[in-house]
């Protein structure tokens, strides 16, 4: 009879978990940021809120965003004009729409990740799914498993309403699963659609203006596994160490809540400063835990681009060279803040830059921020095969 220790030893993988493949997807409808305020106030019949329109124009102008993609386009909104009024009971209709569209967008991203991975979808052993756009069970994870043809024994976890830190959390869970289950191949999928909380403007609800100025729709998928199979699997980023930190007494700074009219969303104007005051301590603690003293400019950075000012603060605080946040800034510019999916787009951008021969450091940090305020941090090591992609 084997001992528990022997069983446990046999279960654990030898090497660290690594990102083995990445895929992303966005809905077809593209919104240009320069035109967005005119579009938004027209389609929600809100031209009379001239002051709010001016504010949205200022936010769009300063957002660092050029375009975003949305599922809820003008045609679909035309079929659901009640979505513009947060007082109307539209939650059922929004959940119905999201229940189909969220897993479909995730499936597009995941199919790309699986194709790059080079192994059949049936080899996926675990699925970790994060979305703020759900509201029923069985959830989008089960539908995604069915769309991809994953096997019925796949071990599923859904992270609901984790907001923008959901991508970081899902990747941390994937690391734990891969390192504690020999041979495990974890599919991480984050799929976010703003339709769950899209409203017209309302006096006194500046969150709605901010949300409409920076958030976009997108899905990111990652295959995570340890001990890559020679000649088939190519590690992109090894996941060296991960931490989660909650900033004390900030539970009211970023909040979401399902209401009869959809997802009610609040981001306080203090969020960038709160992050600025806490990020460096969090990074120092993380690196001290693994006994490494790092020069911030010697690392690559995958920071969740929650907003242009957040990136400016991180850059200034850490004294980063202007190129260090280029991947985060490009993702923000091309897609906006896609909540949990965004850090996956940033990882994708980083590996593309490296594949093009651009200088990307050997060691790096991924950080994502969400309700809590929660900071998810992961120390990454760029694997050699990045150069060959
Ligand atoms: C919105 C911005 C792009 C605007 O750029 P600037 O600050 O440079 O420009 P600015 O000072 O002229 O501000 C333009 C207007 O935006 C308003 N404004 C700024 N932040 C706001 C907020 N949180 N809520 C409501 N209004 C806000 C300002 O008061 C100002 O109004 P006026 O012009 O009338 O004075 C930036 O402030 C930014 O990047 N903020 C960070 C956004 C954020 O917190 N993201 C995290 C999302 S949550 C997330 O990522 C996690 C999650 O969801 O889980």
TrEMBL record:
- The reply to whether Protein biosynthesis figures as a keyword in the UniProt entry is no
Please give the CDD domains that the UniProt record associates with this protein.
Answer: CHS_like
**Chain ranges of the Chalcone/stilbene synthase N-terminal domain:** 5-228
Q: Which GO terms describe its molecular function?
A: acyltransferase activity, transferring groups other than amino-acyl groups
Q: Which residues form the active site?
A: 164 (acyl-thioester intermediate)
Q: Which domain of life is it from?
A: Eukaryota
Q: Which PANTHER family match?
A: HYDROXYMETHYLGLUTARYL-COA SYNTHASE, OS07G0501100 PROTEIN
**What is the designated name of this protein?**
Chalcone synthase
**What organism is listed for this UniProt entry?**
Triticum turgidum subsp. durum
């Amino acid at each position: 009879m084997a001992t528990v220790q022997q069983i446990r030893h046999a279960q654990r993988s030898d090497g660290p978990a690594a990102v083995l493949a990445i895929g992303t997807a966005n809905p077809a409808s593209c919104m240009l940021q320069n035109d967005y305020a005119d579009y938004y106030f027209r389609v929600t019949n809100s031209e009379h809120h001239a002051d709010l329109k001016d504010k949205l124009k200022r936010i769009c102008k300063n957002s660092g965003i050029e375009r975003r993609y949305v599922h809820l386009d003008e045609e679909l909104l035309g079929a659901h004009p009640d979505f513009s009024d947060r007082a109307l009971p539209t939650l059922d209709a929004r959940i119905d729409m999201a229940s189909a569209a969220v897993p479909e967008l995730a499936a597009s991203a995941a199919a790309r990740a699986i194709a790059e991975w080079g192994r059949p979808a049936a080899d996926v052993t675990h699925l970790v799914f994060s979305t703020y756009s759900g509201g029923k069970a069985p959830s989008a994870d089960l539908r995604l498993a069915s769309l991809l043809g994953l096997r019925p024994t796949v071990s599923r976890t859904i992270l609901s309403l984790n907001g923008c830190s959901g991508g970081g959390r899902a990747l941390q869970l994937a690391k734990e699963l891969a390192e504690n289950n020999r041979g495990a191949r974890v599919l991480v999928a984050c799929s976010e659609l703003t339709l769950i909380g899209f409203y017209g403007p309302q006096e006194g609800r500046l969150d709605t203006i901010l949300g409409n100025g920076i958030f976009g729709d997108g899905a990111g998928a990652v295959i995570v596994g340890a001990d890559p199979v020679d000649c088939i699997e190519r590690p992109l980023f090894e996941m060296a160490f991960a931490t989660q930190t909650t900033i004390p007494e900030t539970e009211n700074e970023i909040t979401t809540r399902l209401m009869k009219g959809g997802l009610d969303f609040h981001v306080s104007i203090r969020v960038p400063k709160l992050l600025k005051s806490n990020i460096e301590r969090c990074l120092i603690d993380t690196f001290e835990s693994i006994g490494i003293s790092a020069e911030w400019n010697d690392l690559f950075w995958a920071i969740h681009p929650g907003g242009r000012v957040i990136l400016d603060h991180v850059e200034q605080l850490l004294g980063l060279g202007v190129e260090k946040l280029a991947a985060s800034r490009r993702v923000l510019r091309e897609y906006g803040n896609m909540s949990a999916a965004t850090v996956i787009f940033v990882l994708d951008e980083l590996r593309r830059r490296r594949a093009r021969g651009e200088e990307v450091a050997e060691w790096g940090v991924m950080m994502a921020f969400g309700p809590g305020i929660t900071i998810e941090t992961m120390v990454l090591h760029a694997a050699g095969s990045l150069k060959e992609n």
